[in-house]
Amino acid sequence: MHKEKSDILGNLAQAVIDMDVTRASKAAAEAIISHIDPYEAITDGLARGMDVVSELFENEEYFVPEILLCADAMYAGIEVLKPHFPKEAASNKKKVVIGVVKGDTHDIGKNLVKIMLDNAGFEMHDLGRNVPYAKFIDTAGELNADLVCLSTLMTTTMDGMQVVIEDMKKAGIPARVMVGGGPISPGFARNIGADGYARNAAEAVKVAKSMFQGIQIPLAMKTPELVSIRKKLGGVQ
Fold it and tell me: Is the model's pLDDT at 224 over the cut of 60?
């Protein structure tokens, strides 16, 4: 029996919430069979499930072990979807350096952005998590990067983004900077001198493309904030 699109997306989200790797993989396969866009399956299915997981963590109903199992389910679904992403050809790929700033080890959101940008035709260089500020500067300079993406989930580490931006300017690195993560807002991004802000992985692709296509997306635009886990040391991004 043919399932409705909303049911499949709901199954993807629920599989993540339930920490069910097998169900996530099966729901992802159903999404492909039903011709649901793989990006939509991630943003409106798997990632939506992780948003709920973040809320459960914030309410102390889920803890770090549950978060890790939920992430495993999400990644299982992504692995099924990845071969079906419409790979965009790019004769002159823009180089992107991406990482989670020093002091923060939450990298689920960063990983989603990396996957989406890679399949949108960008050349990705992932520095991982808990990245020293100087590593962003050195790598961007060595690669002659076009864009640096900074991520954090913690309010205690978000000021590190400004340090990276200021150090890039001092080093004469012309790469543009996009920031994102739970506690980050368009206003904060503007105040620290970032060139772009994205509230999720799908928007990151839109913002990154706009930077190199002459399309202006105002940093001050009002967008819903991501579910954030503020002032806590555990959780997901």
Answer: no
